[in-house]
Write a structure and sequence with these properties.
Largest sheet of chain A: 8 strands, mixed
Strand content of chain A: 5-15%
Helix content of chain A: 40-55%
Oligomer: homodimer
Structural class of chain A: alpha/beta
Number of helices of chain A: 11
Amino acid sequence: MTITLIGAGNVGYHLGRRLHKKGWTIRQVFSRKLANAELLATKVGAHAIDDLMALDAQSDWYIISVSDDAIGQVAQQLSKIYGMQDKLVVHTSGAASTRLIAKYFKRAGVFYPLQTFSKNRKVKFRNIPICVYVKRQSDEKILLKIAKTISKTASAVTDADRAVLHVAAVFVNNFSNHLFHIGQTITEKEAVTFDLLKPLIQETVLKIEDQTPLAMQTGPARRNDTQTLKKHEAYLQKFPDFAQLYNLLTKSIQDAYRR
Amino acid sequence: MTITLIGAGNVGYHLGRRLHKKGWTIRQVFSRKLANAELLATKVGAHAIDDLMALDAQSDWYIISVSDDAIGQVAQQLSKIYGMQDKLVVHTSGAASTRLIAKYFKRAGVFYPLQTFSKNRKVKFRNIPICVYVKRQSDEKILLKIAKTISKTASAVTDADRAVLHVAAVFVNNFSNHLFHIGQTITEKEAVTFDLLKPLIQETVLKIEDQTPLAMQTGPARRNDTQTLKKHEAYLQKFPDFAQLYNLLTKSIQDAYRR
């Protein structure tokens, strides 16, 4: 099973390195920016390429890790390369449909590592759930087998369920991270150190290891502590955008306990 | 330094046990519900009381851990007990002013452990920042000294700064936790396991240990990936409240990168 990686962004970079580390052979790495292709290719012992048409059809598996908007176009271009018809071609996106690839390839699929990646940060790949989906049933075994060499959690997940996971991932990751940013903005505006809040942030996550977030909720919205809610509203007049979020999130918490 | 604990809720329970464990003597524990007072009193070797007027003035330090709305009233009642005039009296609230106590006591203060507590969950108290504030300067040394026996981070924090920390704490803790609840609601509605999202949630927090949340942001809002944003909006028609939050948080992220 040899691999061609198309895209050397955050996901391609970490996934490529992990596959390489677990003994899989990566032959070619494509990026529109040659420097990016080279950065990754050097680390995984592959050949760097910045022209899609220079890719060859010698690999068994093609992984497309480009922005969602570009997947369809890349798949189309890939399909024009001689000898590609029977290749297994997947993308790594949480939100994009398998159809973008299935339009051009019989053996289309998805290989989605459910995690947030930044190039300058190592992640424990073993803990990252890999969501696999394929058009041709016999390919499922192949992708799950590979997924299990790089992660302890590999699951077959339909397009519809992956879309649900991706929306939920935006809430739990992107939006939470933005709330941390708001916390930092508020404290640093008043010259209070954000570090004082970090143990609280850690505990927020540890709490839901074995309890539901609903059961673990605390704070003025949960307690209907109107005095404190009013104080916070008054304070947040300094930050009108944050005030709007504060009100909507407070209302949403209160609704959750009315159900 | 002997202690009387007034209130045996989440904060009083954990703080009382920690002080006891570090060798401080707790003499009396008050709760309106005798069972709660007894639960804690047994664990810290104190006497349980359910009538405020049955408290005595034999302790050096009085810790009021009741709901914000009740602090003023409790302080007033406490001040009627003979011999209480010169006692050090603090509350443990993030949001309440010191004035609620200072109205009745010269030696008023705050002893605020910046953490989220649930009775059935152990926390590493050593990691919890304790924010101390006192009306009489000489008491600051006393409270900081005690705080340092139970935590590695003890700081003098003014009422104004504590209020700021408390608003920020609501964003990073209560609101993030609610986003986790939304993630669970969405996934479980579709019979997808929420557990698949837990490694992502962990990584969200680990990422900000040494980087700012602003630098660590990823996702469709950050990338201005309009195709995915539209898909998510369409999907969230099933959850109108969540859709409203999704739009406002997306806008807020985009604003953060325009600044």
